[in-house]
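Category: protein sequence paired with discrete backbone structure
Discipline: computational structural biology
Format: plain text, a pair of labelled lines
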Amino acid sequence: MSTSDGYEAAGELLRALSAPLRIRIVTELAEGPRCVHELVDSLGAAQPLVSQHLRVLRGAGVVRGARRGREIAYSLTDEHIAHIVADAVTHAREAR
């Protein structure tokens, strides 16, 4: 991967993380795999909205899904993502 490819990939990752609900989803998944209904319950967001954001995160390679019975459990593809989000949230809180 060339240097410019790395910047391009980083930009795509940050775009995928640019929505507050997606940041909250990543924060939840940092604790472990979750099914959509578990995310809906913990986030208090509508199921179609959570599914839509999961689709974006999956397309960006941030999360992956694994079948758990009749459901799909989503998890982070890389622990670095959890650290990026946690650092960004901490920074935002400290900057206030």
Q: What stands out?
A: Helices lie at 3-16, 20-29, 36-43, 47-59, 79-95.
